[in-house]
Amino acid sequence: MTKVVVAMSGGVDSSVAAALLKEQGYDVIGMMLRLWSEPGKEESNRCCTPDSMAQARRVAARLDIPFYVIDAKDVFHKTVVQYFLDGYARGETPNPCLICNRQIRWTFLLDHALALGADFMATGHYVRKQTVEGGHQLLRAVDRSKDQAYVLHVLNQEKLARALFPIGDYPKPEIRAIAEKFGLPTASRKDSQDLCFLAGEDYRNFLKRNAAEMLQPGEILTRDGRSVGEHTGLANYTIGQRKGLGLASLVPLYVLGKDSATNSLIVGTQEELGSQQLTARDVNWLSGETPSEPFRAEVKIRYTAKEAEALVIPVEGNQVQVRFDAPQRDITSGQAAVFFQDAIMLGGGIIL
Amino acid sequence: MIYLDYSATTPVDPRVVAAMTPYFSESFGNPSSVHRYGQVAEAAVDSAREQVASILNCSADEIIFTSCGSESDNLAVRGAAYAMREKTGAKWILASRAEHPAVTKTLSHLEKYEGFLVEWLDVDSSGMITPEIVSKALCENTAIVSVMYANNEIGTINPIKELAEICSANNILFHTDAVQAAAYLSLDVQSLGVELMSLGAHKFYGPKGVGALYVRKGTPLISHLTGGGQEFSLRAGTQNVPYIVGFAEALKLTNEERAQRVTHVKPLRDQLIGTVLETIPDSQLTGSLESRLPHHASFAFKDVDGNLLLTLLDAAGFACSSGSACKTGNPEPSEVMNAIGLSRDWGLGSLRVTLGIHTTPADVDSFLKVLPEVVEKARKLR
Question: Could you say which architecture CATH assigns to the domain B14-254?
Fold first, then answer.
């Protein structure tokens, strides 16, 4: 029988993923990762509280599948939390979920799944996989409002070959109905962009506790170099932010960028906020091959952003230039820009 | 699946189930009742008590039935601590660092909330408490000494007779947790010389949810489960008649078949230990080689996550246990691993393999075939 490990969270999506695979005749094993939490905050880690672990264990019992929890605290801290801190230290706004998907879920956990003898690993992500001549493609979910392809642009052919995404073919309401049919819990984790290890808190508090040294006050400058105030540390601000700058001016001022070399925060008017192009580094192509020609694509510049039409131009050094048809607000260094053609996810990179 | 975790629990012997069955719906009376229903139930409990007493070489009124081994430990340690303080004012309790949590947590509780003082005795590198260790630690203010008969994690058997002698010579109560020992070692309390001894049925093919405490006549003990006068007013609550019957039947069978059970498991266990140490690099036996439960093998593997090892073994079809096992993926080396002086890189990689009456040579062979590659896999995943 084909063996598949399902990465479970106790929530409705991964529970239904497990139930569907079991129904399809797979030999299903449930697994969950124990991730890193700040000491004393283990109860609030969004991904692996004792509660969600107990929930996943109940689901596994209900489906009559084995269930194991794997310790990933050290590796999570070393890769994901460190990436998060390093990103802010460089003046970026990092997205640690990307590195978590690449290094933790689809490397660390996948290695454990394969060691258990699994042929595949499945998750409760709203995406689809399609196998065509010459390889595997990652497709957006049928339910576009739930689509999670953005965080999975880090996959490659080798990992895709092992991946199953059982729920990407269903709209969310149908997932709830299936959960009910199997007698599974139907509550889903509140959709939230909060990072699991922030324990529901503002990331600024986390930085204050864990990397206070990076929060050096500095000057707030306009594009033309005029000093208009003082900031409390670059990491405390995000691109496009308007509130909390504490600046008196005739028109609202927005955070346009950060200059970590001079530790200054660049602000400007709403008109200055948009930009028609970006450069992305460390680009991953899901097909495994870098396109030889510029191509048109829909580009998404953060998890919640709407896709925008653009021309994507592969350039030297594993980078791309993206030229949008219309100016885009809040292009943020450290977030990913990912490229779609219709439903197909082509790849993505980190915005410079 | 191959079950190699008999120290965690054992399957109930069908003969035990048969002995218990009439006492659920047929002879269901409350032993405290005056009428015939009650008399029948009471007779069953009395017979069970006599049966257990004859195996322990004591009188029936020295046996207190409880709900489990942990409850027996609680009654022994708490009950004796309170009683000794009342009687003599002594409030020091000595216990091994390698005791089961049923003892260690109870003592910590007595220390924190009741003003008792606990001295934790260091074990030697095999996990043993020697007579010298106890001699050195005794003082006139010592109320109780508690040392387990055999250790659950590493199988080490303590010299209970010698330890009890020292205590008795100093008029100090001696308690032993014999939960792990009962399946294989003599439980003759006269020869052991203990005042208090805890037992639990599910370690010797009896049901979960029933235990017993031996209390030598004249031992001061204060009840901590108060209510009706059951169990000589030392443990209130309607007796769990079918389970008490099951306890006695399981112990009887264990006593009758002890020699042949030892003959069955010991060679398999020896083969297991020998082969593991030969075939797996950076491995060691934990506990003592000589003074060891005959069904018990325990190892430490360097640079292995013990929890992951259990997961991989389970997926490969083998049910084992570990001194760092934790279902929530948050492993820490156990107190026992720390007590025998294992460093963290060894202590996290512990594995306990315990055999039983249903273990076959083929089971052990197939386990030994799989274990080296599983350990290798676990090391690679670190």
Answer: 3-Layer(aba) Sandwich (3.40)
